[in-house]
Design a protein that fits this description.
By secondary structure, the protein is of the alpha/beta class. The chain has four domains: about 5-205, Rossmann fold; about 215-375, TPP-binding domain (Rossmann fold); about 385-570, 3-Layer(aba) Sandwich (Rossmann fold); about 585-614, no CATH class. It is globular, with a radius of gyration of 25 Å.
């Protein structure tokens, strides 16, 4: 057997460089690059290995371990899970900073390879700098925290272990059913150990994404159920995007005359004006989609895990005879909620289910009803997001202004706070796949970091980041990253004086405004942050505007700019677009506030509408 002598770190990096994928019919690197912050746990060995391949596997220096791993998550999402980024940190706090990003990837079923330094396998220097000692278990390090938020976890304590571990990690990251983040803890001494690796280990390999075909009997049962439907409805989730099944979804819906509603992850599977697109469903969805869901008798859920924001905590479906069909690559998701499961790839599944249905079409009266509800919803969007002269515009006004002025293929990106709801409701997707709202983990701080990763994945498009003042203050340093690396973003900072959407929930359930908006916080000196000057200090072009007319002029300048451009605008903290479904949260059963008790009583009415064991 022919071998080559390399350190473990060198072998790991070499292996990553020869992994290939297929994008639009052409071969491409599976790993698009590495986000790295070096420390003593990864700089001398892994850093040395990465430097030697910097022209093949580019390394990008992040400003924060969490944000660079979030950028990796957004990159994978934008690449529809066909290409993967690596994020590496030193040990200790550098590693634990990435745990939140791992949670984002895990919740959203997205691949990212996380490499962290670890303590010494030989334990001779123990306790080492940044080691958290466990008195009863010397094998435990902070890297064990990743076990809860990764699909694959391993600690490399012998150099030859990567021969079996790396293929397993990649297999899981590319599996349509098990997809998620993979983690390898790299013992510091083992990173530098030499080993005679088989040359065959480094032979290039092209990875193709598996498309599991549904079981024939499951297809027959699903087709029979749909044929009996009077009010059928399709719920399209993020899995439609990841299976590259948007065209197949459109063909299926048109051929069989079934309205389509979108989850948050499934937004922009169809253009907003497609005649069968009835809008986003759920808690931050449209009145049209929620009205249809309330009456639907057969729901075909494609590529969605039916998170509570899509189902209104299981209150949006009110037809007592509802039957649910779940087409999903993951058995775990397909069998939820007593669904008739169709386990398989969304693209293949829609095609084969369509063939089983032959020429069956849903009732015209139902699609006319859907069109009527959608037309009414579009009038609501026109009203709330249209042009305004208000001195303090709403989130919706800002979203509407961008929507009117941006290019059809520009990507809108957001994450936490009030913007997910206002974008989900008001963003009109003029092209398929131009929307990214991280709402599986609802991670504050994803916005700007995610924008950086999305721009790397789509250098030819403008990525428009919508971020509130709260999320901006939590994580903003990748404005600097985007300037340094030449990945231009347009960042829209909507300043409403704090965490306004949580203040809204607090008040809605009868609570007093407390500790959310700055005016209700325990502070001694109220200081207005100059977000534009802050962004300028990181090298971006930036300006603060008043009103939508000024905002529109600034947006034109941002489109023409040669670097990241930040536009700051104050928005109303209490104006929201209607259309919401009910959402279950914990409410106090005992309180001294009458308003809280009233809110709890109202909340109980919502719980009375929940479907239990659907």
């Amino acid at each position: 057997m022919k071998t080559v002598r390399l350190t473990m770190a060198q072998a790991l990096v070499k292996y990553l460089t020869v992994q290939r994928t297929v994008i639009d019919g052409a071969e491409a690197p599976l790993f698009g690059g590495v986000f790295a912050i070096f420390g003593h746990g990864n700089v001398t060995c892994l850093g040395e290995a990465l430097e030697s391949v910097k022209d093949v596997l580019p390394t990008w220096r992040g400003q924060n371990e969490q944000s660079m791993a979030l950028a990796a998550v957004a990159y994978a999402k934008a690449k529809r899970r066909r290409q993967i980024m690596v994020a590496t940190s030193s040990i200790g706090p550098g590693a634990t900073n990435m745990v939140t990003a791992a949670g984002v990837a895990h919740s959203n079923r997205l691949p990212v390879l996380l490499l962290s330094g670890d303590t010494f396998a030989n334990r001779v220097p123990d306790p080492v700098l940044q080691q958290v000692e466990h008195f009863d278990n010397p094998t435990t390090t902070v890297n064990d925290a990743f076990k809860a938020v990764t699909r694959y976890w391993d600690r490399i304590t012998w150099p030859e272990q990567i021969i079996s571990s790396l293929p397993e990690a990649i297999a899981i990251m590319l599996d349509p059913a098990d997809c998620g983040p993979a983690f390898l803890g790299l013992s510091q001494d083992v990173q530098g150990m030499a080993y005679d690796y088989p040359v065959s280990f480094f032979e290039p390999r092209v990875h193709l994404i598996r498309r599991p075909r549904p079981d024939t009997e499951e297809l027959i049962a699903a087709a029979a159920l749909l044929r009996g439907a009077v009010k059928p409805l399709i719920i399209a989730g993020g899995g439609v995007h990841y299976a590259l099944a948007t065209a197949e979804l459109a063909v299926f819906a048109e051929r069989h005359n079934i309205p389509v509603v979108e989850t948050i992850a499934g937004r922009a599977v169809l253009p907003w004006d497609h005649p069968l697109n009835a809008g986003p469903i759920g808690v931050i969805g449209s009145a049209s989609a929620n009205a249809l869901a309330a009456e639907a008798d057969v729901v075909l859920a494609v590529g969605t895990r039916l998170q509570d924001f899509a189902t209104g905590s299981w209150t949006v479906f009110q037809n007592p005879n509802l039957r649910l069909i779940a087409l999903n690559a993951a058995r775990f998701d397909a069998i939820k909620h007593r669904a008739l499961s169709v386990v398989g790839d969304a693209q293949a599944g829609l095609t084969e289910l369509g063939a089983a249905l032959t020429d069956w079409r849903g009732p015209e009266a139902w699609t006319r009803r859907a069109a009527s509800e959608t037309a009414e919803w579009n009038r609501v969007v026109d009203k709330f997001s249209g042009p305004t002269n208000a001195s303090l515009p709403s989130y919706a006004h800002v979203v509407g202004a961008v929507n009117r002025m941006c290019d059809p293929t520009d990507i809108a990106l957001t994450a936490a706070g009030g913007l997910p709801g206002e974008l989900n409701k008001n963003w009109r997707a003029r092209s398929v796949g131009n929307f990214d709202c991280e709402f599986g983990f609802s991670c504050m701080g994803y916005e700007i970091a995610g924008g950086w990763g999305a721009k790397m994945a789509n250098p030819e498009k403008d990525v428009i980041v919508f971020v509130g003042d709260g999320s901006y203050l939590m994580m903003n340093s990748d404005i600097y990253s985007s300037v340094l690396t030449g990945h231009k973003l347009i960042v829209v900072v909507c300043d409403n004086g704090g965490f306004a959407v949580i203040d809204r929930l607090q008040r809605f359930k009868g609570g007093a405004s407390f500790n959310n908006l700055f005016e209700h916080c325990r502070i001694r000196n109220r200081v207005e942050v100059d977000f534009a000057k802050h962004a300028e200090s990181m090298g971006a072009n930036a300006e603060t505007v008043d009103g939508i007319a000024e905002f529109e002029r600034a947006f034109e300048r941002a489109k023409q700019a040669d670097r990241t451009y930040v536009i700051v605008i104050k928005v109303h903290p209490n104006e929201w677009t209607p259309g919401d479904a009910w959402w279950d949260v914990g409410v106090p059963q005992v309180s001294q506030r009458e308003a809280v008790l009233k809110g709890t009583a109202e909340h109980a009415k919502g719980r009375g509408k929940q479907r239990v064991g659907v």
